[in-house]
Amino acid sequence: MMRKIVVAVTGASGSIYAKLLLDKLQQLHQQVAEVGVVMSDNAKQVWEFELDNTAYSNYPFKFYAKSDFMAPFASGSARFDTMVVVPCSMGTLGRIASGVSDDLITRAADVILKERRRLILVARDTPLNLIHIRNMQTVTEAGGIICPAVPSYYSKPKTIEDVALTVVNRVIDLIGLENDSYRWSEDN
Ligand SMILES: Cc1cc2nc3c(=O)[nH]c(=O)nc-3n(C[C@H](O)[C@H](O)[C@H](O)COP(=O)(O)O)c2cc1C
């Protein structure tokens, strides 16, 4: 089945994860019917600060304003099957956990959960306080997946991009797309 995916980018550190996920979704376009993107105001600021560019505006995907409740994925009837929040700030995590649907990001997440579809939060902060941990528990109990932006090193990544890809490749696996990426095996 061709996938309909929402990518929400928020103002946590780690814009590189959003960039690499959008790059991957572009590469894997044959498996994807539609990608809708929404960015928070802070997401744009952090992206520009961390990546020194505004390349988020170059993708061939449809971008929606954070205030646009007319976007298709603001309703379950549009049948977007997956939403990834990448990176996901503790603020957005908290708003999703408490059901605040006051912008397109939190509304879309609310819709995905109520429709029992796949919500993946690439949560980023360290250390975590009890409020963060409880919010992660709440989202998990509601059916969401907390996929922390925590890289792995057993593939021996050489560059910052390789390190960040260890997170993004796990997100692609969670979305359920076929992807040619490093796999741990007995041959290693
Ligand atoms: C450079 C920078 C890095 C940040 N990193 C984080 C972070 O890793 N995690 C986090 O929860 N907030 C982080 N913040 C703070 C969020 O941007 C802020 O809480 C914001 O209100 C989140 O709103 P949003 O989720 O709507 O983007 C960072 C802010 C800046 C400017």
UniProtKB/TrEMBL annotation:
FMN binds at G11, A12, S13, S40, S89, M90, G91, T92, R124. Residues 4-174 form the Flavoprotein domain. Pfam families: Flavoprotein. HAMAP family: ubiX_pad. Flavin prenyltransferase that catalyzes the synthesis of the prenylated FMN cofactor (prenyl-FMN) for 4-hydroxy-3-polyprenylbenzoic acid decarboxylase UbiD. The prenyltransferase is metal-independent and links a dimethylallyl moiety from dimethylallyl monophosphate (DMAP) to the flavin N5 and C6 atoms of FMN. Belongs to the UbiX/PAD1 family. This is Flavin prenyltransferase UbiX. It comes from Mucilaginibacter terrenus. The lineage of its organism: Bacteria, Pseudomonadati, Bacteroidota, Sphingobacteriia, Sphingobacteriales. The gene is ubiX.
